[in-house]
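In response to reviewer comment 3 from the previous cycle, which asked for concrete evidence that the modeling workflow produces usable outputs, we include below a single protein chain processed end to end. The sequence was submitted unchanged, and the resulting structure tokens are shown without manual editing.
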Amino acid sequence: MVANLSLPRIMRVGRGAADELGDVITGLGLSRPLLVTDAFLVGTGAAERLTATLRKAGPHPRLFSGTVPDPTTDSLASGLEALHDHQADSVIGFGGGSPMDTAKALALLALQGGHMRQYKAPRMNLGPALPVIAVPTTAGSGSEATQITVITDSATDEKMLCMGPAFLPLAAVVDAELTISMPPRLTADTGIDALTHAVEAYVSRKANPLSDTLALTAIQAIGRHLHRAYTDGGDTEAREAMMLAATQAGIAFSNSSVALVHGMSRPIGAHFHIAHGLSNAMLFPAVTAFSAHAAPSRYADCARALGAATTADSDTVAAAKLVDALSGLCHDLAVPTPHDYGIDHDAWSRLTPLMAEQALASGSPANNPVVPTTDEIQDLYNRIYA
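The workflow returned the following structure tokens.
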């Protein structure tokens, strides 16, 4: 099998890397970036500090802070207006997955127009698009290094997977110092998101040697550092390790694929407005238990990298220990069930058939070691509810 691999052209990784953003922009011959972020980062002053860094290096940025959690097609309209008004030649995604996904969508729509539903999977989007520079502030989505964006269709509540080189950032600036202020809940959700990316990339039917290496390295780092970052947000060593692991996991799944957890997670987020990492966490142990028998050696490798099993364990035993470890991790990090989160049981049951259809339609479940039926997906949704 020939692996088709794509990475950002430029990657600045390390503490203090954000201070070099202006140099990255000018080095690419760009001068009028639209800085896409959210109200939270404006409120903390982080967006203004980054804007000042850009101005000092020469570019003329404009700030757009209208992104929303789990961005929708409606939320893109004001961003497009700001982009055109500024005559932007590039887009900077500054924040978690939502600002970065928004930046990617705006960059494509700026040159191609239309509606995002035209660009959803299975379409492979080759471009054109404005250059995107990604600056993550959470250690989870890996969007700074992926050729994927996820946008919810406001008309249908479908969380659309959009993919292709058009969405791959031209540059990524990865600075762990930007994650120090993350609260425990966000640290947990984004950390489990990164772990899900790494495990699914490794067990995916589209896995390849590059994605395998990065996925296992990320799993090992997350196993050693996620609890530490959750317990002590000021643990800079843990923060830096988690930031690098999230980027590694992002590269891994972008060049392999995600699988059933993500396929089932997107509809939960769309219909019940649960953060992506948290909905992944709700599903992760149950979906792994459902899938592990079909690829025990692959799941066993993940268990050993995570520190949940050793080489003395058989693959079957190690895979089972991975399921136990994920359940324990979700317990330790206070991951709620959908019921505990406050989702009404009748609403959950009513939407389960639609969510199962949307999960399958996304294409991600087809990459799973066990390709599920609609009925099996519905059963998994019912199983995790309480």
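The radius of gyration is 20 Å. We consider this sufficient to address the reviewer's concern, and the full set will be provided in the supplementary archive.
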